[in-house]
Amino acid sequence: MLKHLICVALCLLTFVCADNIDKNAEIRSFQSDASDAEGNYQFSYETSNGIQRQEAGSLAGVRGSLNYVSPEGERISLSYTADEEGFHPTGDHLPTPPPVPAYVLRALEYIRAHPPLLKEEN
Q1: 9-18, 49-58, 84-93, 94-103: which range is least confident on average?
Q2: Considering Cα of 89, then 93, then 95, then 99, what sign does the dihedral take?
Q3: Which residues are the signal sequence here (predicted)?
């Protein structure tokens, strides 16, 4: 059920992005292999305004990608997987955490090299 919800959400995202770029976009290609008896499926499509989407899934998980041009004219590429661990998107446009400061890395290394001694109970 979660996989279907994620798929629908990503489809809606695609359509929202398409609406902001070109309301007259046409579908250039569309391919779909419906779900088989084991739950495997795949689909892909491309539109005239540069949107490309593909996805393949099974009971074990989903893998796919989405490419489009943002309203600012920047090419956005998103790849993702979804499995029992959740949804895992990757893309250069996604925010990333700041690097770990050097002093924190040194402290962690010191703690690893000098583990605290546990006091023995009497």
Answers
A1: 9-18
A2: positive
A3: 1-18
Please give the Cα distance from 86 to 122 (Å, whole number). Answer: 47
Do 14 and 22 form a contact (C-beta atoms < 8 A)?
no
Q: Is 25 left (phi over 0), alpha (psi -120 to 50) or beta?
A: beta
**What's the Cα-to-Cα distance from 9 to each of 3, 16, 27, 109, rounded to whole Å?**
10, 10, 20, 42
Residue 73, phi then psi, degrees to nearest 5? 90, 5
Model pTM score: 0.60
**Gyration radius from the chain CA atoms:** 22
